[in-house]
Design goal:
The structure holds two protein chains of two kinds. The relative contact order of chain A is 0.13. Chain A is mainly alpha-helical. Chain A is 73% helix and 0% strand. Chain A is built from 13 helices and no strands. The radius of gyration of chain A is 22 Å and the shape is globular. Chain B has a three-stranded antiparallel beta sheet with strand order 1-2-3. In chain B, strands 6-7-8 form a three-stranded antiparallel beta sheet. In chain B, strands 4-5 form a two-stranded antiparallel sheet. Chain B starts with 11 loop residues before the first strand and ends with a helix. The chains are: A mainly alpha, B alpha+beta. At the A-B interface, helix 5, helix 8, helix 12 and helix 13 of A face strand 1, helix 4, helix 5, helix 7 and helix 14 of B.
Chain lengths: 391, 370
Amino acid sequence: MEALLATYLKPLVMTAVIILLFPLIAGYITLAERKVLADFQVRLGLMRVGPYGFLQPIADAVKLLLKEDIVPSAADRWIFWLAPVLSTVTALTAFSVLPLGPNLQVADVNIGLLVILSLSSVGILGTILGGWASNSHYSLLGSLRSAAQMVSYEVAMGFAIVSGLMVAGTLSMQGIVKAQFDRQIWFAFSNYGLMFIPFVTYSIAAVAETNRAPFDLPEAESELVAGFHTEYSGFRWALYFLAEYANMFVVSSIAVTLFLGGWLRPFANIEALRHPLDFAFPAGLFGLIGVGCAIGMRRRTVAVDKGIMAVLAMAMLGAAAAFLVPMINAAIIGPFWFLFKVSVILYCFIWYRGTFPRFRYDQLMRVGWKYMIPIGMGALIVNGLVLLKAR
Amino acid sequence: MPDVTFLDANELVLNMGPQHPSTHGVLRVILKLDGEKVLGCECVIGYLHRGVEKIAENRTWMQFAPYVDRMDYVAAVSNGLGYCLAVEKLMSVEAPPRAQAVRVILTELNRITSHLLWLGTHALDIGAITPVFYCFREREEALKIFENYCGARLTTHAFRIGGLQYETYDTFEKEVLAFCDMFPAKVDEYEELLTGNRIWLGRTRGVGILTAEDCKDFGVTGPVLRASGVEWDLRKAQPYSGYEKYDFAIPTGRNGDTFDRYIVRIQEMRQSLRIIRQAVEGLPTGPIMGKVPKVMKPPVGECYVSIEAPKGELGYFVVSDNSTQPYRVRVRPPSFVNLQALDRMCRGSLIADVVAIIGTIDIVLGEVDR
């Protein structure tokens, strides 16, 4: 019975929770993205739906669901249907091996990283097929671009990941995190700091892999209107959009797991830092957000808005209090650090978008093949030699 | 460059516009592509044609003045100035010194707002989404000065034939000087975001090169010409409205590429500030209107007056048959003439460059189509 629960029920429940919850989370990532961008761009951003635009993602989701489903008459219907599904399914499947916490994982398979890499390779097909099936020039150009871009940056990403694997010595996601605990160092800083190079190349390749600015050529608005998903609208478009944010989350999670210690807190082996980092830091963080929400509540005038902000403030303060209870803390501190690190990386994604102009196609390929891949290979060899010497 | 034959089966014809995010209005460009490479392009214009020149023949001299604001609506003040100068020349009247100085202040402010709009949208085309908001923030300050002066922000109709309709308002000089004090630091801010940025350099250096010879062949004027190294600015070459009194430099580039055009326009904004400051500090007192009859009937004749609009040489050729209405008004719009060079600049580049090149020419379709 016990085994049955562990093997079947827990993964099933987690899968259901992820599939049900992630669309909402993705919506709120976009809200965060738009708010952060607004902050860069000296404006307020969303302020209309709900207090401080807090209900905007829900309104957007409803809008997308209710939109008319349009399939261009010249499109290849079946492939047009299949492409966004393929993108979304592969992106969400990759969640199954992400180690959100010490025991929080759908499946700790011994080839975790390989699963993610192969899924992301299949996911590219969704983009290519979508552009092809649309039967539109803009879509076609967008999908051609994405085919070339994602394939070439996958190579650079692969080299960086292999460097990480050499140091970790395992493909299991939990194993990688545990190795960082045993080695008492995050892999981004190990090997006398040499592992920092693969970390940087991985971070850049990850941005390109997810088609985010400054590598957002497949959907370059000012050139290709919307690139490969020009002809998509409504719920089909929403699936692509969901896949993009899921991919962002997945590549950030790999960076966190492989290079930044996964669910470990910083300096996980120094016992003296346990209380300030595991208790005071999260409690303080959520406490601050809670106080912020409370101030926001006072500034709102509409009763409903005040109510929503009050609930938010209570929830945040409650979370802060929960972190102070040792038993609850033990259960949620792992996911907290994992998600905190992922959020920091996601913030950087948004930061790039607000700062950089877009690469041109040939420049993108040059950066990929002439800089990223040679540097990745070089780092791989140097790190390999260092490891060999240490052994 | 050898002429490309468009019979090759491998080419892809991409219709960009008239509804497209970065054709700056309703420009339609038919691109002939080989993969991502542009073999040639053809502009289709006329989607915003309103027959402004024909309208002129059915309006009195005075009535037509607001129409010119609707051509280059981003630089309406310059358009108004050109028309007023042309009619004034026809009638042999001159605006009094105070009117001339105020005209200079407002046109130079307008040059800044026009360049700011260009900078923001150009950066947006190349994928930098943030500068546009910074540019609009400062543009707003300048537009507020227009609004306070004449009540309108965009299509200002700020001047009258013979001078100004309105005296400046009480805090005019103070507000303009405050703008002059605030603005240089903001230009530094834009430059910080873009000028040294590797991606920006990669996207603009060597893109859309136009040599000085090409410019002369196509009749290209304005910042595009100056970026190719030709020091030609009508404010210096044939001073009007008292520009000879002010000390300013003509920024020029060397390579005639998109980056040089960007630098030239940034420098021009700084030079405009110098002019504004000099004009405000030496603002003469006196009347604001010359001697203009209530019913205007310029003597039979024709004249051509051109000014340095933000986008290049803006010329008005006006013909009078001694009636209350113009016999013919012909406009030489800088955008229209500069747009001719698009094909030359685009050939052999990539699709992404086409967007950058359309942006760097700085067209306003209202002016191209009239």
